[in-house]
Amino acid sequence: MLKRNSMTETTDRRRERRARQASAASAARMQPITYNLPVYELLNPEGVQRVHEMSMRILRELGIDFYDDEAREILRAHGADVRGDTVFFDEELLLKYVGMAPSQFTQLARNPQNNVTIGGNNMVFAPVYGCPFVEDLDGGRREATLKDFQNFVKLAYMSPYIHHSGGTVVEPTDEPVSTRHLDMLLSHITYSDKAFMGSVTSGKNAADSVAIAEIVFGADTIRQNPALLSLINVSSPRRFDDRMLSCIKVYARARQAMIITPFILAGAMGPTSVAGTVAQLNAEALAGIALCQMINPGTPVIYGSFLSTIDLQSGAPTFGTPESQTALYISAQMARHYGLPFRGGGTFSSSKVPDAQAGYESIMVMIPTVMARTNFVLHSAGWLENGLVSGYEKFVLDCEILGMLHIWAKGVDLSDEAFAMDAFAEVPPGGHFLGTAHTLRHFRDAFYRAELFDYNSAEQWELNGAPDTYARANAKVKQLLASYEAPAIDSSTAEALRRFIEKRKAEIAIEPRDA
Amino acid sequence: MLKRNSMTETTDRRRERRARQASAASAARMQPITYNLPVYELLNPEGVQRVHEMSMRILRELGIDFYDDEAREILRAHGADVRGDTVFFDEELLLKYVGMAPSQFTQLARNPQNNVTIGGNNMVFAPVYGCPFVEDLDGGRREATLKDFQNFVKLAYMSPYIHHSGGTVVEPTDEPVSTRHLDMLLSHITYSDKAFMGSVTSGKNAADSVAIAEIVFGADTIRQNPALLSLINVSSPRRFDDRMLSCIKVYARARQAMIITPFILAGAMGPTSVAGTVAQLNAEALAGIALCQMINPGTPVIYGSFLSTIDLQSGAPTFGTPESQTALYISAQMARHYGLPFRGGGTFSSSKVPDAQAGYESIMVMIPTVMARTNFVLHSAGWLENGLVSGYEKFVLDCEILGMLHIWAKGVDLSDEAFAMDAFAEVPPGGHFLGTAHTLRHFRDAFYRAELFDYNSAEQWELNGAPDTYARANAKVKQLLASYEAPAIDSSTAEALRRFIEKRKAEIAIEPRDA
After folding, report:
1. Fewer CB near the last or first residue (10 Å), C or N of chain B?
2. Which residues cross the membrane (chains A, B) (predicted)?
3. pLDDT at B15 over 80
């Protein structure tokens, strides 16, 4: 039970001032996050070895299906055992190719200050991906449009705690499917200067993505360091489809980075157990990574893990469950075991709105995500309703949490200054530390302060209209979008992009439908 | 992005049936929680040593005030250096007495099946403590009454994930201050059969608590294993007040357990840094624990840590901050370093209602609480508004999270059965695991399912009236309280209790006010 301090009365004024300062700055400078704390190792080395061995059994005895003739031919030519659509790997062959992937790489951003290093102790937070719907307090749940897409790119650009512009932040359902990828790429480049993702809707769209990256960064430059990072989903269990394989071929040949991610809801696309599901995920991810290295050794790849559970009574997906936390830690350990960057986690929830369930579930996933030292976190902000919805308010609330996790990851200062012995000498028993010289040296940045969390007294909160977190976040979204200013772009680049997209749209308009 | 399974349509019917079954059982059997995973050690051994040394400097150079003549006399007689109110400890003396405290003990409950072991890998979850207000969706925020007190005792009794009935779950403000402790103790004993806490409002009230425990458990029995666990707060910085010292003397002489808890909001009652605040907390907790052992060697004690931060711009307390998480991990490590059971954490929030902020903040504290392997968690359910409020809906929502953490703490099964190789052989690439023999063997208890979290499709959720988590929890509270059945109590015990309380109330009525 705590009493309120009289200083509270001036809070609102101070908050207002800081908000004005923030909006003047438009996009706060990106704050990278490196993890300086011990990584949480859930399994002991024997446990890691056991998962590895079970995965090797799956790859050797059951194999993985690859629905692309050329991909299977590449696998066969490099020594895999191909029978029909199914490819069987032995351990030595697999580890040889997995070992060719770099343990760390840098993805280029249009603004070089926003380049991101993926691997090691670095963490990169990217927005939610793939939502066909958006949601906010004013408009409720509705189909996402290109305007929404651009809004989420802007919000990600403006947050210092989001390091990456992401990919299909929402599905712009008002644009034709055949050319949507062009509008999305152009929006990332126009409304942000952070790194972004390539299209995976077809091999041709992947090629368009590479062509656009070449316009913006230069064809040679992107062969040195990738400018695209693209999401390759495994159609679990044990299956790479033709669309994903087409994209793998395009991106690997252009040496652009990929996240190879089995998408498994345990109980449906994987067995009804954590251990079995992780063994399956490990087998699937490694098989895809080996293929990338066979196509172009040294292609940057991330070991991906999208792994949650289903409600076994209804079949509905469930997030933040204890089993999914355990699986996340173990899959991160497996990626480290093979020396690969890891992708997993996010701020997942099944809730339809940013309510208590959304808060509980999001952190139940996000803390393990950070403590597993995840290198790339897709879905780190915005996710609602099993990923069907990107929530505007949810997005800015999640960013608040990402800010806290930035501080957490810094670790603890054990310097003499941090032990504050001079402050103890100054404060008698029962005194307070507010006026000490030590406090005056540190009060500005000592403790993280969440702008969107309410620390007012109940009385003050009532006077303010008793806004819940959803309502406060709604105001923040409006303030951010109203104060947005686009980053500068070189006019010849912009013109070249415009011409390329115009040309491709014209070509696509006359292409046969099944192309 | 996920598609919904058609099985969902029958969810509501199933949920209803399970709810009926649950209410028929009234109180589900308590599920103990033992932590079978690696403990998260945030500091390396040198870091632990450095915090230890800084604490020893505080104890040796600055000392701790004890505002009780007899307590100081005991400290002096056992070798401490007493000057005025201030007591200085050298390391050897302090560690000698700290070393006399047991590393683990069992607290008795009225129902022996609900006895709790405190220490080692055991965790005990207890309700929120000390709230003068309650809050629910129907009645809003209001002063707590004895009726509310009894309701929270009932809710704690009915949850399988709450192991302890707690103490002042809310402040029954409609009862006279002088006799309130008697009503609270009687309510714990009457409405629950789980273990409970003693009064710390005065030495006399502590003595009443011991007398009541003797009636229920027997005077000899409680000298073997404590029946009371009481919360001794240090008035940080560096101060034990007369009230707490009176209680320490009573409880230590009766060999009843105590939690010695510095109560520090860093920036106000501690310095503006994590390291300094933890060093202070460590010094204060160890000084109190040493005193308990001087009074009665072997008295069971818990090393307590109530440590959060303030908003340095307003002075308001803040919870779930990254700094408070770090401090929680370190203080848990210090307790383990001295071989003492640890208390810390809870589901803290500054929010006024169980909204997204409450969800985010609660888990930001509760996951570190569990991963630090906290042995006793006060405030594990119900906390809102900096602990001023116990929320009815928040209580049942927090219990849902405690259930998940029970599963998490069990660790991971790496048996052959868990690797499910038979299921892989059964399911072709692209197939699903729902019908496998392995799934049929495990679907009942494979994955945790939160009853209060909504996993319905958006369409179904809309049809259900689009209830947010607050509204769903409100219905659950009503269902639980309506189906409550009191545990049996021996009639002679009940009669002896009634007589004792009647006698004490009569005595207190004629006692002088300052007694």
Report:
1. C
2. none
3. no
Say which of A266, A354, A404 has its CB closest to residue B322.
Answer: A404
DSSP B348: -
Taking the C-alpha atoms of residue B129 and residue B123, their distance in angstroms, rounded to an integer, is 18
What residue of B is the nearest CA neighbor of A276? Answer: B419
Residue with tokens 């969390």: A453
SS3 (DSSP) at A501: helix
Nearest CA in chain A to B393: A356
Closest CA to B190 of B491, B508, B399: B491
Interface test with B, best of A143, A240, A424, A451 (most B CBs within 10 A): A424
User: Which residues neighbour A390 within 8 Å (Cβ) at sequence distance 6 or greater?
Assistant: A127, A128, A131, A133, A134, A135, A144, A148, A152, A169, A170, A382, A383, A384
Whether the predicted pLDDT of A16 surpasses 60: no
Cβ(B215)–Cβ(B222) under 8 Å? Answer: no
Task: Round to whole Å and give the CA distance between B313 and A331.
Answer: 41
On whether the CB atoms of residues B1 and A132 are closer than 8 A, the answer is yes
- Going by C-alpha positions, the residue among A456, A504, A487, A419 that lies closest to residue A189 is A487
Chain B contact set for A458 (CB, 8 A): 141, 352, 385, 388-389
pTM: 0.94
Dig out the tokens for B310 from the structure: 């303030």
Provide Rg for chain B, Cα atoms.
Answer: 24
Answer yes or no: are the C-beta atoms of B331 and B344 closer than 8 Å. yes
Query: Cβ contact (<8 Å) for A274 and B8?
Result: no
Selection from A276, A318, A384, A359 nearest residue B449 by Cα: A318
Residues B181-185: what's their mean pLDDT? 98
Name the residue of chain A whose CA is nearest to B277's CA: A419
CATH of domain B97-409: 3.20.20.480
Token pair belonging to A126: 């990217």
Domain range summary for chain B, segments of one domain joined by +: 97-409
Are B252 and B71 a contacting pair, CB within 8 Å? Answer: no
> Are B318 and A357 an interchain contact pair (Cβ–Cβ within 8 Å)?
no
- Helix, strand, or coil (residue A230): strand
How far B161 CA sits from the closest chain A CA (Å)?
15
Q: What is the 3-state secondary structure (H, E, C) of B449-497?
A: CCCCCCCCCHHHHHHCCCCCHHHHHHHHHHHHHHHCCCCCCCHHHHHHH
pLDDT of residue A14: 52
Residues comprising chain B, all counted: 515
Using DSSP's 3-state secondary structure scheme, residue B316 falls into coil
Inter-chain touch B388–A458, beta carbons under 8 Å: yes
What is chain A's Cα-based Rg? 24
State the average pLDDT over residues B398-402.
Answer: 97
Our CA-based measurement puts residue B314 at a distance from the nearest CA of chain A, in whole angstroms, of: 5
Chain A partners within 8 Å of B65 (Cβ)? 429-430
Whether A27 shows a pLDDT value over 70: the answer reads: no
CB pairs under 8 A between A and B: 451
Please name the helix (run of DSSP H) or strand (run of DSSP E) that holds residue A186, with its range, or none: helix A180-191
CATH 3.20.20.480 fits A29-411+448-514, yes or no: yes
Interval B158-169: pLDDT, tens: 999 999 999 999
Residue B436 contacts residue B426 (beta carbons within 8 Å): yes
The Cα B165–Cα B149 span in angstroms is 11
Residue linked to tokens 């936390």: A325
State residue B220 phi and psi, 5-degree precision: -70, -45
Closest CA to B359 of A396, A390, A401: A401
